[in-house]
Structures are given as structure tokens and as C-alpha cells.
Amino acid sequence: MLIFVGEEIMKFTDVIGRQEVKARLVHSVHEGRISHAQLFAGTEGGSGLVLAFAYACFIHCENPTQTDSCGICASCIKHNKLVHPDLHFSYPVVTNSTIKDRSPKSTDYILQWREAFLHNPYMDINQWYNAMGVENKQGFMSVEESADILRKLSLKSFESKYKIQIIWLPEKMRVDASNKLLKIIEEPPDNTVFILVTEHREQLLPTILSRTQLVKTPAPSIQEMADAIGKLFNKEPKIARRIANLANGKINAAFILPAIRNKI
Fold first, then answer.
1. How far is CA 126 from the centre of its chain?
2. What digits encode the pLDDT tens for the residues 193-230?
3. Staple 17 to which of 30, 47, 197, 236, CB 3.0 to 4.6 Å?
4. In CATH, what number is assigned to the domain containing residue 59?
5. pTM assigned to the model
6. pLDDT by residue (tens digit) across 68-81?
7. Domain tally for the chain?
8. Looking at the structure, do residues 144 and 261 belong to the same domain, yes or no?
């Protein structure tokens, strides 16, 4: 089920969720008060990853408005294809039939990541595992992943003022990987921004928590969810609200419920 391919997914207006969180992020950019290390804490299948992506796009946008990215500049176009050279992603990975290194890195799966994210940016971890082609394995981020992050961020930015590193599910980082990043998270190079997107904040090391600014990304309200479902799937308000209630606050669940297609 292709949901987002061909759609704009990087703007704040396209993110399902709390308007007040978006407004605070926009304000921080306009005021020049971008925290160098932020922890977006939300729920499984929620809007944390998409919100982080929209935030990165807004920071990089060449012609931002008062409330959002322009969507048409060279930077926005590259973001929409996930190819901006100053935006980096890290996420849980694992070996598979073709990548047999004991410590695979996110860069080994960048093509699968782009396809999966553009297919459904609200994906959960199991959908990501499916996109990688792995079964019955748990993804992780190794110390080699941290070394790769350090290497990329040691380089000068290519096109934008800021280098941005998004780490999806940092709770999947092994202890040695987390420890290797502590210093750079606390004292990053100039104009470097870390955005950690967690679904289980309680599983993070206290040292990571103490070095990041918390940004709560709560689940959207039922009405926000219903409005999005109505728009994306052309559902009547009553039906859209019923689906939103069934999803129980999980955006991703609302998008994969069989009811969306046939049963409601």
C-alpha cells in the first residue's frame, strides 16, 4: 500500500500531530536558538520521525516562510528525495543474506531506508525489518555506527549552514555505541544538530538523557487523526473518526488497518 510516494512529506503542514510542538520548533529556528542535541520522545508508530524530518528540512530550507519550508527550493527538493548531503540518518540494522558483516551500518541500508521512509514515514520497527529483508532478528546500532557518525560529522557541511544527524530509535544503540557519542553530543562541532527520535525514552542511558533537550511528541488527538485519514483516504468524517478510534492514537496503525480499504 503506497501511501506517501509522490506526496510532499517534509513540511510541517504535512505532519500529523500537535500544532504547539511544531510552533515551538519553528520559533526556535526563527529566533536562532536551535539546540544542538534534542530528544524527540513519542510513541511507537507516531509522528516523531516525520516531525524530525520536517524540522531538518525547515532548518535547511533556502526560503522558509514564517511557518514552514518553502517546498520548492533546491534544498527542499533534495530533502523530499532523502538525498540532501547535510542530512544524515542512523537507524537499527542487522545482517541479512547479502550484508553479512557482524556490525552492519546504516549506510549499508541507505537505499532500503529511502524506499521504506518514502513508502511510509510513519513506519514502525517491524516494517523496517521487513524492508531490510530480515526475519527473527533484532536490529541494533553498533560502535562502528557511532564511528561512522563521527566521521561524517567531522566533515564540513556541503550546502547548508547546519549538518543534521537524525538517530531513529537510539534505545537500540549498544552501550559502547552510546558512550562513543557522548562527547560529540555534549560538545558537537559548530552548526551541528543531533535529533534523537525515541519511542522508549526509559530505555536510554541517563547520560544520553542528560545531554539532550527533551521535545515531547505526543500522539495526535482523535480529531487530528480523523482529519488526516479523511484527507489521505477520502473518507467521510464519521468513517474517518471511527478508524481513528480503532487506531487508538497510533498513526501507523490507522494507515494499515484493513478497514481503511474495504471494511468500513
1. 15
2. 999 999 999 999 999 999 999 999 988 888 988 998 88
3. 47
4. 3.40.50.300
5. 0.91
6. 999 999 999 999 99
7. 2
8. no
